[in-house]
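Moderator note: this is an archived Q&A kept for reference. The question asked for a predicted structure of one protein chain; the sequence and the answer are reproduced below.
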Amino acid sequence: MKYALPLFALSLLSFQVCALELARHSQVFDTGQGVSLALAPSADGKQALVQVRGINHPLDEVVFLTDVRELGNEQRDYGIRLDGRDYNLLNKRRAWRGESYNLNLPNTQGFELIYDEEKSKALEPSTLLALYEKQEKDGVQARLAAFDRKQ
């Protein structure tokens, strides 16, 4: 009986991941330097799937479930857990010239992203979700989130 409560809690956590409902429209951004980012927000806007491609880094092609932190004035941060700490992978800002998205990667200056309408139309959020679920099952995100004492 003492194992019933932790088992029940674990089943609820796994149910929440499976129950992720994505918004119908996703976005793809490009840096102009061969790096791209796919963004698929959840239907409630509190989370989003984010995948970065074209970088020489362990984060390449990993799909993360980010927590969206609203900062007001249509500004938000997309956070993940990386190497044992919270990390803002993506920032959306609004300024006098319009919206800007910035990709932050460890040990880099970051990248300004440009919206790619053609790639955005081609991206299927369900494909991104399926890849996220497979990678999560394989423990990819958990390994990246864990603190690495050697570093």
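Archived answer notes: The two ends are 41 Å apart (CA to CA).
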